[in-house]
Amino acid sequence: MTRVFSPRREDISSIHLRAIFDYWQAIRGGRTAPDTSDFDPLGLPAVALRYIIVADVFARPFRVQYRLVGTHGVEVAGFDFTGRFLHELEMPEDAAAQIEQNLAYAAASCAPLIGRYDWPTVDGADRIDVEYIILPLLKDGMVTRLLTAEHVAQDSQLWPDEIIPIAPMGAKAE
After folding, report:
1. What's the pTM?
2. Which of 45, 48, 85, 52 is nearest to 70 (CA)?
3. How is the chain split into domains, by residue range?
4. Which residue from 7, 70, 94, 121 has the highest number of Cβ atoms inside 10 Å of its Cβ?
5. Helix, coil or strand: residue 32
């Protein structure tokens, strides 16, 4: 897994994630991060909307609840995890820990983060590239929400049923 803290636009290879980052930069202005009231999903280019994932952040204990999951996230997960907490999703343990660390870093530092990781395919013969961004949003000077996005398998021609899905806790992944 690779991570770039406080990324530059040219660090992002997905055109869709770059459009989301550009929007976040525009609403941020000269501030550390934009306010949650500045964020309007309809301000994003329509083609980028399917990649966004918006999460609420709870500080003590640190928890993340998914407020909005775009269609790309739903397709690759195999279900809509809107309303679920990160800890309620079953996925490889190392991936869950890394996702939580990345979200906690962005929330604590109020800094954007981009990265890449590999996710296994169902047949176990391959791993696919996932690029992600995590962008903090503020309320009363505190990070209370994260605008995130993932672009799974942007360089591959894979169907959602070829990717190992995440699952709600207690459900069996098919």
Report:
1. 0.84
2. 52
3. 2-168
4. 70
5. coil
The residue behind tokens 């954007």 is 112
Helix, strand, coil % over all residues of the chain, rounded to 5: 35, 35, 35
* pLDDT tier for residue 170 given thresholds of 50, 70 and 90: very low
CATH of domain 2-168: 3.30.450.20
- Write the single-letter amino acid at 39: F
Q: Which DSSP state fits 165?
A: P
How far apart, in whole angstroms, are the C-alpha atoms of residue 123 and residue 153?
A: 15
Angle at the Cα of 94 from the Cα atoms of 50 and 129, rounded to 5 degrees: 45
CB distance 91 to 166 below 8 Å: yes
Beta strands (DSSP E) in the chain are: 2-5, 52-58, 63-69, 89-90, 113-120, 127-139, 142-152, 167-168
Tell me what the pLDDT averaged over the chain comes to: 83
Which residues neighbour 21 within 8 Å (Cβ) at sequence distance 6 or greater? 7, 9, 12, 112, 114, 133, 135
Q: What is the per-residue pLDDT across 71-126, written as a single tens digit (0 to 9) for each?
A: 988 887 888 999 999 989 887 777 778 889 999 999 999 999 988 877 766 666 66
- Beta carbons of 113 and 134 less than 8 angstroms apart: yes
